[in-house]
Structures
1.
Amino acid sequence: MPNSQEQQKILAVVAHSDDEILGCGGALAKHVQQGDNVAVVFMTDGVGSRTSSNDQSAMRRSQQMAAALSQIGISNFHQLAFPDNAMDTVPLLEITKSVEAFCQDWGLPDRVYTHHFGDLNIDHQMTHRAVMTCFRPQPDSEKKVSPTEILTFEVLSSTHWNSISSQSAFIPHYFIDISSTLSAKLKAFAEYTDEIRDWPHARSLQAVEHLAKIRGAIVGVDAAEAFVVERIIER
């Protein structure tokens, strides 16, 4: 995480509400504490594919999303309306342009957090592809949408349930110490009451805490979030 005192523009682009907390909630909370300008873009309503889904459940999920983000100090978020768990039915160009449109309005991010391509969930894969396409390096481009850093995160269940033989495994090599923000991350995830499952389910509060502790132990801190670096440009 940059040590510069200059305010950074930080963008998280995620498929579903709760992915932002599971994948990089501790890091986002840390950015907020440092005074960075943080925004989150959600691709879907997170519930549209469920047989019991209706307008009321989508509204409840949106309310939980806002409450979760408030726990880590984020008020700037934008929700798109791509089909939940069916983003592969939408042309990649259309998804890419939606991310691009947000950035043209909000500005060029210094760092982007998004999904790892090896996730089982198709929406995660499409979100990853859209981010990498949107932020492809374009020297002298008029769009000027090439951030300095792109990091991809793991999401409990989706990242770890995929077949290692069929997709690239998540092998992190960049870690952010979230010892000071783990409590906020857990409180934020607790707002997603419709998503929490009982231990030992991967989407339990205990699992979220255990993963942070394990990732922290790997690098000798109390708690951490792990990432794969897609790009870091030294400027």
2.
Amino acid sequence: MPVVEPFAISEPLSSMGRVNLNVRLAPFGYAKDSTTGRSYIERNTGLHAVLKGMKQFIASNGTYESGHGEKPLQDHYTGDGGDTINTEFRFDIDPTLTIEKAITPRFDVGGNGFFKSATEICDVDLLISDKDALGNANVFTDPSVGALRAAWAADPTNIAKRAAFWQANSMTGDNARERPYAMIYPRLTTKSNVYTVHVWSQSVLKNPNSNTDEWTKFDENRDRITGEYRGSTTIERYLDPNDPALVPASGGAPYDAVDTNAKGLDPYYRFRILSSKRFTMQ
């Protein structure tokens, strides 16, 4: 019986399945429409998928039992007059607001231009949505927190507004504030290794009677198109951990990234075609 080696779920330095944090495509993505102010080419659909469903734990100052009651998803009796307070502590992160207000400004003039490492997502403010999953307005224990959230969302670059929001929610532990980043970071990359290349190529035949200076040009009236190919090819760039250049078979010293004289890994990357498809014209 033939034996087939299973596909490795995770390979060294592989970014397959991860979303590239650099959503603005260079160079055309850095040009903007003069009317709308939006970039011409941005691929932020993947970021929407990463941020969708992410929640931030928030416990406002004065929250009953500091948000650690036995039934945190139900209303609690305050002990003062029998009133109840809202016990919603996990609020949706707004993907659209976070991308437009906190992520894409990094590419503009005055920003970093691009993300060098996926760890830089930890420097980005995750802006809270003003509505819950059902479309209802978020209700904070302290009504003033809603106003602080709106002020912060309107100007994420204002450090004072961010500080004011979290000072009003100082019962939120650092581990709770950092938890969304722990979920988001593994899903991101800044160095994609899988590309789909779309091709439209033609073979041409020059007119034998063309002048010498015309052989570098295509004349639609005199030259002919003899063939055409349209299709797409998915290519993966990868590292082979058993590459002799990294692990010499002769027993030499293997590649050591810590070595001050070590070269970058770029010369050791290989390419393989994952799929190829030809488009047929009907």
